[in-house]
Amino acid sequence: MNQISAGQIRQVLLILLIASLFGVIFWNLQFFVPALLGSYTLFVLLKAPQTYLTGRWKWPNHVASAVLLLLSFMVVFLLFNGLYIMLQGRILFVLQNSETIRQNAESIIKDLEIKYSISLLTPDNMNHLSEWLVAAAQGLVGATINGLGLLLATFFILWFMLTEGKKMEQSFFEWMPLRHDNVIFVRKQLNDMVWGNAIGIPLMGFVQALAGLLIYWLIGVEDIWMWFAITFVSGMMPVLGVALAFVPLSLLFLSQGDDGKAVLIFLYGFFIMGSVDNLARMWLLNKISHTHPLITLFGVVVGLQLFGFIGFVFGPILISLFILLLRIYHKEFHQIA
Predict the structure, then answer these.
(1) How far is Cα 44 from Cα 317, in angstroms, rounded to an integer?
(2) Which CA distances in Å does 284 have to 11, 276, 287, 289, 304?
(3) Cα–chain center distance at 185
(4) 73, 157 contact by CB (below 8 A)
């Protein structure tokens, strides 16, 4: 009868102890998980500029890190602050006038049903829709407040990554219990994963938002920059994508009796903006790592639940990381099996 050696028992006990302590630490610091993902994402994106400043221009490492930290903070803060200012008044209006909005929406839909002899929504569905809008607005306000704290935590961690990045990265890969060739594989895949998600997903939304901005300007859409922002965010969503922007906008024109603009917006969104999406994805495949739509779909669902609005980017990264771990396990142990 084979007996388990004392060394194996100590190894198992040590692994259980490490896993238990990791679980306790993770549970109490889970607020910082998106901040850690965000700081690592920015670290990967800023690694090349930092190497250029310290290598080509001979800047001291701390000076280069401070400049890049400040510039990246300004860019991220301006983007989120601009989005918040754009939506703040409308969110507060929804919260304060939810009943009026529900009544107006019911009136508009009834007019459409009578005009076109169709059935869109029942009163029960309208009540559910109104409740969902209020809950979504409240959630967005809460996510904005939490987002400010996450932003500060992200750049706090990023400072140490930029100033001590080489040592931290080297220690991390040395601790990984993998063969050297698999460590190199992990390093490359992590970089590709960050570029594919952190750059690719927002880039898709931005390209489609630019395409939408053209038609919004030509037909005279009110609050054009708000609809640009809505198109940008919806363009990052898989499956439905920019339909979440141009379909409500076409319905809005339809409710106002402007059938021509409604049809134009719908056809332009379906054919032109949809084609821009496909062409941009083909270009993206040749330039940077492309994220599969299913990974984006599941990642967005998970990310929004875990991280709030910022989960649009970090959710797909988390799913990609899980798939990467499966690939590493296969590469490391399939020959042993």
Answers:
(1) 13
(2) 45, 12, 5, 7, 24
(3) 25
(4) no
pTM of the model: 0.73
Alpha carbon separation from 297 to 14, 78, 164, 240, 283 (Å, rounded): 38, 27, 35, 10, 20
95 within 8 A of 138, measured Cβ to Cβ: yes
Nearest to 82 by CA among 212, 250, 232, 289: 232
DSSP state of 288: S
At position 209, the amino acid (one-letter code) is: A
**Cβ contact 291:320 at 8 Å:** yes
What are φ and ψ of residue 134, in 5° steps? -65, -45
- The H or E element spanning position 93 is helix 61-96
Q: Which residues, 6+ apart, have CB-to-CB distance to 307 below 8 Å?
A: 33, 34, 150, 314, 315
Tens digit of pLDDT at every position of the chain (337 positions): 567 777 778 878 888 998 899 889 888 887 788 788 888 888 988 998 999 999 889 999 999 999 999 999 998 888 777 766 666 666 555 555 556 656 666 676 677 667 666 666 555 665 665 566 556 555 555 555 566 777 888 899 999 999 987 788 777 777 777 777 887 888 888 888 888 777 777 888 888 899 999 999 999 888 888 888 888 888 877 667 788 888 888 888 887 778 889 889 999 998 888 788 767 766 665 566 556 767 777 887 777 777 666 677 778 878 888 888 888 888 877 655 5
CA-CA distance, 238 to 194, in Å (whole number)?
A: 18
* Nearest by Cα to 204 from 296, 322, 72, 103: 296
Let me know how many helices (H) and strands (E) the chain has, helices first.
Answer: 14, 0
Distance CA 148, CA 137 (A): 17
Identify each DSSP E strand in 59-115 by its residue range: none
**Strand ranges for the chain from DSSP E:** none
